[in-house]
Amino acid sequence: MVSLKEINESNFRTIVGMKLNEEQSKYVASNVYSLAEAWLYSEIAKPYAIYNDEEVIGFIMLDWNEKERKCGIWRLMIAEHQQGKGYGRKVLDYTLNMIKETGKFDYVSLDYVPGNAAGKHLYESIGFIETGEIEEDEIVMELELAKYGSNK
Ligand SMILES: CC(C)(COP(=O)(O)OP(=O)(O)OC[C@H]1O[C@@H](n2cnc3c(N)ncnc32)[C@H](O)[C@@H]1OP(=O)(O)O)[C@@H](O)C(=O)NCCC(=O)NCCS
Question: What's the CA gap between 140 and 134, in Å, rounded?
Answer without folding.
Answer: 6
